[in-house]
Amino acid sequence: RPYDLPPTYQSMCLWGEYTKRNYQSKHYGKAQNLTIALTAAYDKAFQKYDVIVMPTLPFKAPKFPDADVKISVLIEETIGFTTNTCPFDATGHPAISINAGFSKGLPIGVMIVGRHYDDVMVLRVAKALERNLTKT
Predict the structure, then answer these.
(1) What is the pLDDT of residues 65-105, one digit of tens each?
(2) pLDDT score at 62
(3) Which stretches are annotated as coiled coil (predicted)?
């Protein structure tokens, strides 16, 4: 039931299929090679730090679009939503996003990322941060 998926996801699937058919997954192969370097860069940071704490979105959360918004506008407005989150989908580092508060009624997310197989540390830091954020 692909038409039940959000239009932004549908467009990503179509783009993936287009590049597979027309470029023989060349871009996927390049991305896999770059993932090795990206993983090494994060692993180097984790030699010094237990976790990395960063914003979930690199910008203030937008309001929900109107129901009749054009798909092209919706796709344009959602570009960048995964800038901070998708690297860890590729590298496999454990990460969690928690609510760090609100700005003008819109949520602010903070993401905690940890070393490979150190999910427990990520969860402990998230719990401690949540506990301290709710006190203020």
Answers:
(1) 888 888 888 888 787 888 999 999 999 999 999 999 988 88
(2) 81
(3) none
5 to 2, 9, 35, 67, 123: CA distances (angstroms): 6, 6, 27, 15, 30
Question: What does DSSP say about strands 95-103 and 51-55: parallel, antiparallel, or unpaired?
Answer: unpaired
Strands (E), 1-136: 51-55, 95-103, 106-114
Q: Which of 5-19, 70-84, 110-124 has the lowest mean pLDDT?
A: 70-84
- Which of 75, 81, 76 is CA-nearest to residue 59? 81
User: What is the DSSP code (8-state) at residue 115?
Assistant: -
∠ Cα 112 78 30 (to 5°): 70
Rounded-to-5 percentages of helix, strand, coil across the chain? 50, 15, 30
pTM score of the predicted model: 0.83
CA-CA distance, 109 to 50, in Å (whole number)? 20
Which candidate, 57, 53, 58, 35, places its Cα nearest to that of 114?
A: 53
d(CA 124, CA 134): 16
Question: Tokens in use for 54?
Answer: 């960063």
